[in-house]
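Minutes, methods subgroup
Present: GH (chair), OT, SY

1. OT presented the first of two proteins processed in the latest run. Sequence and structure tokens recorded below as shown on screen.
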Amino acid sequence: MLEVNRIDLHYGAAIALRQVSITASPGSVTCILGRNGVGKTSLLRAITGAHPISAGSIKWEGQEISRLPVYERARRGIAWVPQGRDVFPLLTVRENLETGFAVLPSRDRKIPDEIFDLFPVLKTMLRRRGGDLSGGQQQQLAIARALIMKPRLIVLDEPTEGIQPSIIKDIGRVIDLLRSRGEMAILLVEQYFDFAQALAQTIAVMDRGDIVLSGRREDLDEADVRRRLSV
């Protein structure tokens, strides 16, 4: 389990997170909802080690990881699919996937066939450069690259942003399949309630660096959640 307990995060004198607590468990999707600029990405940066926290603790599988660098957290099974995808535009699709080998022992450094079962379009594009793919194809590549790492926690930052509806449905099916296996914890940041509602078991809503509403999906009032997401 991921346990984030009362963390603060600052950018200089500006505070981005205030006393934020959240958990994520294997076999479950935890979704963080909120408008732009409320701290969702800052929370993911804290969890993955991309930015240090100022207070509080982050535990993964019972171990304190708050001070570990990004690569150590990756070695412990935490994979991050950032907002904007961050594929390497000049590397081929195959080479982009192979960057996920970095945290694996030599014996495991191969692309599993399952990657192409999940994302068939990638198999036909292995020699194409990442920068030549559409936004939806790049998003599928970014998720596939994270799965190459054999993560036990995958952190997804707005995977539906700028993506055509057909690929949004494909990504939703992959997330639900991964959850159903019960081996992986999934932490999903979204702005769109309908996508989150279809996938998440637990929902947390952020505003101004705080968690202002949280609970199991079926226990939350949909109208209240939508009101907090409206501009």
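2. SY then presented the second protein from the same run.
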Amino acid sequence: MDIELNVAMAPKDSTFQLRINSEIKKAVEDIYAKTGMTLTDAINTFIQQSINVEGLPFIVTKNSKEALKEQAIAMLMLDLKRAEERADREGWIAADDLEKELGVLD
């Protein structure tokens, strides 16, 4: 996005209405109040994060917990692959040699 938009600083020149169950509204208001936010603050934060990432600011799936786990594993595997490639380029160092080099062993 070429234009930097700041939800908090932008003039409020439009309205947005949302119909919601009163019990659900009260429950989320209580949750956000614990963090010092209003429901409006939380919605504006969601909107700002959507602008920042140019999409939903979280993963939406049937099982988001599983999706996050898979994403974390994929990132870990990529890090391991990069470390292995670096070790192949620069050479491996044995754990004992590393400890000696760091002065861990006497």
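Chair's summary of item 2: Residues 64-90 form the longest helix (27 residues).
Next meeting: continue with the remaining queue.
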